[in-house]
Description:
It is a lipid-anchor. The protein is mainly α.
Amino acid sequence: MAQDLSEKELLKMEVEQLKKEVKNTRLPISKTGKEIKEYVEAEAGNDPLLKGVPEDKNPFKEKGSCVIS
């Protein structure tokens, strides 16, 4: 799609995107970093990548073995 647009149209789209982004509220990383750390630590118990998936609820567990005679 970008190949079909002229340079002027691309620049206009970029300016419009920047106008949208400038309206976003910004917070200092010192505050948001603490909040993210607290959230991750609080949710660690529910993370299947950290604690694993129970064998009975694993949708990718092999149902049976393959036997070739």
